[in-house]
């Protein structure tokens, strides 16, 4: 195998931690000695142990003189665990191939410098673009103080998410719904607006995939006048529920049920999207999956906060009297509309899923 193939394996391993390791990055690591893989690892649930430590433990003495492939610069600071750079030095590895440097000020080149000072050959940049995509949430939180945001819209051919009477279950089919559960599992948190909570009373958990570690469930509501009889409130002690609300909202009832209060500044009478993202990032969220509704989706798009857009389209048409997938955005010129480029297109039974990426 070549360096690129070993790094591709490390990236694949790292993805296993997506949605499970926040606030840490989902790192993968492969250790190779004399052409044989002697250690593999990825960052474990909750962010510890780190991928390098897992792989080194597996490799044991076989790590001495080996080459290590890791998807992000090994950490150099003492936190809840000792630095991975120190562990790699102590193991006696000879060469380290790093996909991407770590912009965290506590690391940011220090890990690489520490390794090189110990006489280890370090090469940086192999498959950096793929690593950058995989670590997009962590990078966004560190450099932009906001999580990487994926917005999911599911509707009819004419962009409606419910009939005039409010009926919406189910517009898309079982394969599309299963895909949504898989996407939830790969994100740290799932977000909806107050209108969606009132209309659908969603659980927002990952079901049918054998997943035990659930994403944080986030509800955005300026006044937080939400029914505590909802599934979210009633299960808040079992699966985390966070409320992003205005500074004067009364959230005592929800907090008494186990929810976490995240007060945010207001903008134009609603929760400020930028302030909300800062609050979530400060709380550790790196990857956020937004499932609507229309007002929340429009506010995120209007604020330029949507990085990936996933659209589930069913072969139905409801007409203008149905509920649109997006609320008004106040766009008068086409040039001002957020622009996305098609990344992927797939068929899910009778539905189509299109994946779009924001174009700056």
Give keywords.
360 residues; single chain; alpha/beta
Considering DSSP H and I runs of 4 or more, what fraction of the residues is helical? Answer: 25-40%
User: Kindly state the mean pLDDT as a whole number?
Assistant: 94
Low-confidence stretches: none
Numbering strands along the chain, what is their spatial order in the largest sheet?
11-10-9-8-14-6-15-18-17
Give the distance, in angstroms, between the N- and C-terminal Cα atoms.
37 Å
Q: What count of helical segments does DSSP give?
A: 12
**Topology as H/E string?**
HEEHEHEHEHHEEHEHEHEHEEEHEHEEEE
For the sheet with most strands, the description reads: 9 strands, mixed
Strand content: 15-25%
> Given the helix and strand composition, which structural class is it?
alpha/beta
The outline comes out as elongated
* Number of strand segments: 18
Instruction: Kindly provide the radius of gyration, computed on alpha-carbon positions and rounded to a whole number of angstroms.
Output: 22 Å
Overview of this structure, please?
- Helix 3 runs parallel beside helix 4.
- The strands form four sheets. The chain has a nine-stranded mixed sheet with strand order 11-10-9-8-14-6-15-18-17, with helices on both faces. Strands 2-1-3-4-5 form a five-stranded mixed sheet, sandwiched between helices. Strands 7-16 form a two-stranded antiparallel ribbon.
- The two termini are 37 Å apart.
- It is elongated.
- With 360 residues, it is an alpha/beta fold.
- The protein is built from twelve helices and 18 strands.
């Amino acid at each position: 195998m070549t360096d690129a193939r070993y790094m591709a394996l490390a990236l694949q391993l790292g993805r296993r931690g997506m949605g499970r390791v926040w606030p840490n990055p989902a790192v993968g690591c492969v250790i190779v000695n004399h052409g044989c893989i002697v250690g593999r690892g990825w960052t474990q649930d909750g962010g510890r142990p780190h991928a390098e430590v897992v792989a080194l433990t597996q490799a044991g003495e076989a790590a001495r003189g080996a080459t290590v492939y890791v998807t992000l610069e090994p950490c150099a600071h003492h936190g809840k665990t000792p630095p991975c750079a120190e562990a790699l030095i102590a193991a006696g590895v000879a060469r380290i191939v790093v996909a991407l440097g770590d912009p965290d000020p506590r690391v940011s080149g220090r890990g690489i410098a520490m390794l090189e000072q110990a006489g280890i050959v370090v090469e940086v940049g192999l498959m950096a673009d793929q690593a950058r995509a995989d670590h997009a949430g962590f990078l966004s939180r560190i450099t932009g103080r906001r999580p990487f945001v994926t917005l999911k819209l599911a509707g009819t051919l004419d962009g409606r998410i419910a009939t005039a009477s409010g009926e919406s279950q189910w517009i898309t089919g079982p394969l599309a719904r299963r895909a949504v559960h898989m996407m939830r599992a790969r994100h740290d948190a799932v977000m909806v607006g107050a209108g969606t909570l009132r209309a659908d009373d969603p659980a927002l958990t990952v079901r049918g995939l054998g997943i035990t570690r659930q994403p944080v469930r986030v509800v955005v509501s300026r006044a937080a006048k939400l029914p505590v009889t909802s599934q979210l409130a009633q299960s808040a002690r079992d699966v985390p529920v966070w409320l992003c609300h205005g500074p004067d909202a009364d959230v005592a009832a929800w907090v008494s049920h186990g929810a976490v209060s995240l007060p945010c500044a207001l903008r134009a009478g609603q929760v400020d999207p930028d302030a909300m993202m800062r609050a979530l990032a400060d709380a550790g969220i790196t990857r956020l999956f937004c499932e609507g509704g229309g007002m929340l989706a429009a506010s995120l798009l209007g604020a330029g906060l949507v990085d990936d857009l996933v659209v589930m389209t069913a072969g139905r048409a409801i007409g203008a009297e149905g509920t649109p997938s997006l609320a008004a955005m106040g766009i008068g010129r086409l040039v001002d509309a957020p622009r996305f480029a098609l990344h992927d297109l797939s068929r899910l039974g009778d539905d189509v899923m299109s994946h779009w990426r924001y174009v700056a």
